[in-house]
Amino acid sequence: DAMVIQNPRYQVTQFGKPVTLSCSQTLNHNVMYWYQQKSSQAPKLLFHYYDKDFNNEADTPDNFQSRRPNTSFCFLDIRSPGLGDAAMYLCATSRGRLAGGLREQFFGPGTRLTVL
Amino acid sequence: DAKTTQPTSMDCAEGRAANLPCNHSTISGNEYVYWYRQIHSQGPQYIIHGLKNNETNEMASLIITEDRKSSTLILPHATLRDTAVYYCIVRVATNFGNEKLTFGTGTRLTIIP
Hints:
The structure holds two protein chains of two kinds.
Chain A: E1 4-7, E2 10-13, E3 19-25, E4 31-37, E5 44-50, E6 53-56, E7 64-67, E8 73-78, E9 87-94, E10 106-107, E11 111-115
Parallel strand pairs in A: 2-11
Antiparallel strand pairs in A: 1-3, 3-8, 4-5, 4-9, 5-6, 7-8, 9-10, 9-11
Chain B: E1 9-13, E2 18-23, E3 31-38, E4 45-50, E5 55-56, E6 61-64, E7 70-75, E8 84-92, E9 107-112
Parallel strand pairs in B: 1-9
Antiparallel strand pairs in B: 2-7, 3-4, 3-8, 5-6, 6-7, 8-9
């Protein structure tokens, strides 16, 4: 089945130690998104890629970076994780520009990041 | 994008219809109403969306009032697997397809056996 895959499902890192989360998709979608969801809160968009074009949300901290080497993969890099960055990180995809209609977003299962 | 207001939580008996309301009184003419749900420890899942007309798919029905200031998501025969947080989201459709979802607090729906 076509899907959005996130690895690992659980990630533990130390305060200040860089960490990378990965997302892959078999849907061949143009757009890939990264959301952050802290405990008991709603998901919040960090940034997204439309093909190779990177779109950052205005309030996303510089500590968060992203890479998309090809259509299938997208990475979230946290350069110096703080305790406040502990959260579920959700990757999503959508089809992008299409004549007419709207495109829903397909979410992966998320990676739960713990910062010690 | 217009803001939405949803009840914090609701209960529904298994097998009954679950009706989840959403207020979006500041919605603009070009904004759509989307519903997603998030089952515990999973990513959000698209349910349904609409602009003016009522919509139905295999998962749910969406009823939008004539003035478009509110809507109701209906799960016709709720099961225990429908226990989740349900998000009502209102947003403009872009020409580029990179739609941003702004999640509100959502409604925590609990299906009671």
